[in-house]
Specification:
Elements (H helix, E strand, L loop, with lengths): L7 H8 L5 H16 L8 H10 L5 H12 L2 H10 L4 H7 L2 H16 L3 H5 L7
Helix pairs in contact: 1-4, 1-6, 2-3, 2-4, 2-7, 3-7, 4-7, 5-7
Length: about 130
């Protein structure tokens, strides 16, 4: 089990950081556009596409609810740990746009409801 880069209370404060929220909104819209470009044969595509359609212009409430899940993705945990700071505002300022986009990309399946077993298993077709 990976270790936490910050105590849970600090992670929660980061997920509620007002300066991070607008950046998350933009990252969500950016990744939604990437999802629209995916092939329909992409595993989990209907759920991934539906989330993209729903959050193409994310509200603050949508971004806030997604931010909790995004802060705990492996790319975001690594980015948080790499900052070397513990103050949530300082962490938010130190996270790069690319790190934020990687976190959104990584969390897209789980937020959209795509089961990890669906992604890990090949699709079986009848012959």
């Amino acid at each position: 089990m990976p270790t936490l880069p910050l105590p849970l209370t600090s992670m929660c404060a980061l997920a509620c950081d007002a300066s991070l929220l607008p950046r998350v909104r933009m990252a969500i819209a950016y990744i939604a556009q990437e999802v629209f470009m995916e092939a329909p044969t992409t595993l989990g595509y209907p759920l991934r596409w539906n989330l993209a359609k729903t959050v193409l212009s994310p509200t603050d409430a949508q971004a806030q609810s997604m931010l909790v899940g995004l802060v705990v993705t492996p790319p975001m945990r690594a980015a948080i740990a790499a900052t070397g700071v513990s103050d949530p505002a300082a962490v938010a300022a130190a996270i790069t746009d690319e790190q934020l986009l990687d976190g959104v990309r990584h969390g897209w399946n789980s937020i959209s409801g795509v089961s990890p077993s669906t992604v890990a298993q090949p699709t079986l077709t009848e012959t």
